């Protein structure tokens, strides 16, 4: 059994979800949300300049087959350097998504805890559970007699109470996530601000969950992405010349993926209300060499009314976007996030039961109104969230179908998830058309929901 404590939620939130799930299901779900998925997924990056003579599917397969030997070789070296069994970490190609490679996440609970402790925050702890080493800025504290090349126990500060630079053992609530080798001295780490630090702080030799991230030198070839997000973009069926709208684009992984599919005259319009997030999307578009196909704007997607000409989208955001402007729309709205994993303790998103009942669903329905208006007849929309709340998933889709008879759910050509939940507005047939990823039945990934819709008139 995992040593990680189950997700903590306020009593009113627990009561809310006990109306959705049985008590046994809910308790199992809380434990699963505290743990990382059982699989690490890589999406193969296909720059627009790579084999422009090929369609996206053919280019992906060729690129994947080129990358695979190098990736396996580097993962083998990673394992050997940590005395892991290389035979347990074979990279495999996904059978249904051509641009997805994956390898397992293995439990490693029976490890001895070294005497010396190094404290990290929950963000760094999450990265460790997903296969990362610890960068120097992520180290909160280390005991005064800790030195370079010491084997140390990595402890996560569960309540954000450990002060940076602390030299005595922290006695607050903490959890052991593995052991590693300290690579920088206390003096080097704590004599500078975190923003001034670089390089590895701790090499994780014995994490409680063993897997591998993207090897050094392959960051422009691979992208760590949950398979659910990769699937959502794939279900859009983006053609070479399609105009695509990503209404809530941050952090940008889906926009970048979609842009790589636009190998003709197509493009992606990425919207977000936050300037920093828009700048990040544009920067990533350059890194992954799809910048010619990505246009990103600071914009509130609930307020896109207007009749500006769709060519070049010159009116955005001042005049808005014209109705029926887009062949494809990705709507991955802000949500309560009760599907993200691993989570240490609790998150701010699950503190208020009102978010689950009314606030987020109401906002998502407003976004859906704009999405329907902007979608061309015959166009495809994919709606997705990283929450398991049916009021933000099945109920939002049911509301859309009720308000807009010209929208219909369609069967996805790739079906990996389970059916939707009954009793939240969708009939049994439509529940089979959506995809719900519950970590109790799909431990390989995060909690997620996907629906694919078409505008018929």
Automatic annotation (TrEMBL):
Gene3D superfamilies in the cross-refs: PUA domain, Vaccinia Virus protein VP39
Keyword Oxidoreductase: no
Entry keyword set: Methyltransferase, RNA-binding, S-adenosyl-L-methionine, Transferase
PROSITE patterns assigned to the protein according to its UniProt record, in alphabetical order: PUA, SAM_MT_RSMB_NOP
One Pfam short name: Methyltr_RsmB-F
Example GO BP: RNA methylation
CDD domains: AdoMet_MTases, PUA_NSun6-like
Family, per entry: Belongs to the class I-like SAM-binding methyltransferase superfamily. RsmB/NOP family.
PANTHER family per the UniProt record, alphabetical: NOP2 YEAST -RELATED NOL1/NOP2/FMU SUN DOMAIN-CONTAINING (PTHR22807), TRNA (CYTOSINE(72)-C(5))-METHYLTRANSFERASE NSUN6 (PTHR22807:SF34)
UniProt-recorded name of the protein: SAM-dependent MTase RsmB/NOP-type domain-containing protein
Species per Swiss-Prot/TrEMBL record: Mortierella isabellina (Filamentous fungus)
């Amino acid at each position: 059994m995992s040593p990680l404590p189950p997700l903590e939620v306020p009593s009113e939130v627990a009561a809310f979800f006990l109306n959705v799930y049985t008590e046994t299901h809910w308790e199992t779900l809380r434990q699963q949300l505290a743990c990382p998925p059982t699989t690490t997924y890589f999406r193969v990056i296909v720059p627009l300049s790579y084999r422009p003579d090929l369609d996206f599917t053919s280019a992906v397969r060729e690129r994947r087959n080129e990358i695979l030997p190098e990736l396996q070789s580097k993962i083998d070296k990673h394992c050997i350097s940590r005395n892991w069994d290389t035979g347990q970490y074979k990279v495999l190609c996904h059978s249904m998504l051509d641009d997805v490679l994956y390898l397992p996440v293995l439990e490693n609970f029976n490890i001895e805890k070294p005497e010396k402790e190094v404290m990290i925050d929950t963000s760094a702890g999450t990265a460790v559970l997903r296969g990362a080493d610890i960068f120097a800025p992520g180290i909160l504290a280390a005991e005064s007699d800790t030195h370079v090349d010491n084997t140390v126990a990595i402890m996560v500060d569960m309540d954000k109470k450990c002060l940076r630079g602390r030299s005595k053992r922290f006695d607050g609530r903490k959890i052991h996530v593995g052991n590693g080798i300290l690579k920088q001295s206390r003096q080097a780490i704590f004599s500078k601000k975190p923003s001034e630090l670089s390089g590895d702080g701790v090499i994780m030799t014995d994490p409680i969950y063993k897997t591998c991230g993207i090897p050094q030198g392959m960051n422009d070839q691979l992208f760590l992405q949950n398979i659910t997000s990769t699937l959502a973009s794939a279900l859009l069926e983006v053609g070479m010349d399609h105009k695509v709208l990503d209404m809530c684009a941050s952090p940008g992984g889906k926009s970048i993926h979609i842009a790589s599919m636009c190998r003709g005259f197509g493009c992606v319009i990425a919207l977000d209300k936050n300037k920093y997030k828009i700048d990040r999307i544009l920067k990533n578009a350059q890194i992954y060499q799809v910048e010619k196909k990505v246009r990103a704007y600071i914009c509130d997607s609930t307020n896109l009314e207007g009749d500006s000409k769709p060519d070049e989208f010159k009116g955005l955001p001042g005049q808005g976007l014209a109705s029926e402007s887009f062949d494809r729309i990705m709507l991955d709205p802000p949500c309560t996030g009760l599907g993200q994993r691993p989570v240490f303790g609790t998150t701010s998103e699950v503190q208020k039961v009102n978010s689950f009942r009314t606030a987020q669903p109401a906002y998502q329905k407003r976004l859906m109104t704009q999405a329907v208006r902007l979608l061309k007849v015959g166009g495809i929309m994919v709606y997705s969230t990283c929450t398991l709340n049916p009021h933000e998933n099945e109920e939002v889709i049911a509301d859309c179908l009720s308000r807009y008879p010209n929208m219909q759910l369609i069967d996805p050509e790739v079906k990996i998830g389970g059916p939707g939940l009954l009793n939240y507005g969708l009939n049994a047939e439509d529940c089979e058309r959506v995809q719900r990823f519950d970590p109790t039945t799909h431990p390989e990934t995060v909690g997620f929901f996907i629906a694919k819709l078409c505008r018929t008139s």
